Amino acid sequence: MGVGFAVGVFGVLILAHAAYSTVQYKGLLKITEEEFSGPPMNVMVELILGSIFCMWVAFTIPGKFLLIHPNLGNFLSIFVILLMSGKLYSTQISFFISS
């Protein structure tokens, strides 16, 4: 649990606070009977900062991307099963359409 994890938690907390502030602001507007035209500027700043922190963590925490080597034998058998079930469903649909 390094700095990246702490920044991620901080970003999520900022986003949660922005959501809570927006709900409070809407409640205040209901009391004063004004219309909601959008969130206040401080909430917009919190949304931008929280989003930047969360995106930074999403790009830095995972590390290196590794190649995935699929097992083609298994993949082809799943594809054949899906192909067969697709034919079954298409005949059932055509039966309902023609009835």
Model description:
The protein has helices spanning 3-32, 41-60, 72-98. With 99 residues, it is mainly α. Helix 1 packs antiparallel against helix 2. The N and C termini lie far apart (62 Å).
Question: What features would you highlight for this structure?
Answer:
single chain; 99 residues; mainly alpha
**Rg over C-alpha atoms, rounded to the nearest angstrom:** 25 Å
Number of strands: 0
Please report which band the strand proportion falls in: under 5%, 5-15%, 15-25%, 25-35%, 35-45% or over 45%: under 5%
Mean pLDDT: 77
Given the structure, what is the number of helices? 3
What sequence of helices (H) and strands (E) makes up the elements?
A: HHH
Helix content, binned percent: over 70%
Largest sheet, in brief, is: none
Shape estimate: elongated
